[in-house]
Amino acid sequence: MRSSLVAAELKQLDNILLVAHASPDGDTIGSTCALFGALKALGKRACMACDSPVPAVYEFLPFAREMCIGADKLPFKPDCIVAVDCADLQRLGSFQAVFTRVTHTINIDHHITNPGFADNSWIEPDASSTGALIYDLIGALGVSLNYELALCVFVAISTDTGHFAYSNTTPETFAVAAKLTEYGLDMPSITDRLYRSRSFSRTRLLGLILSRVELLMEGAISVSYVTREELNTYGGAPDMEGMIELIRDIDSVETAVFLREKEKEVIKVSLRSKRDFDVGAFAARFGGGGHQRAAGCTIAGQLADVKEELLKQLHEAMEACAKARASQDNSSTERSV
Ligand SMILES: [Mn+2]
Question: Which residues surround ligand 1, an ion (CB under 5 A)?
Answer without folding.
Answer: 27, 85, 129-130, 160
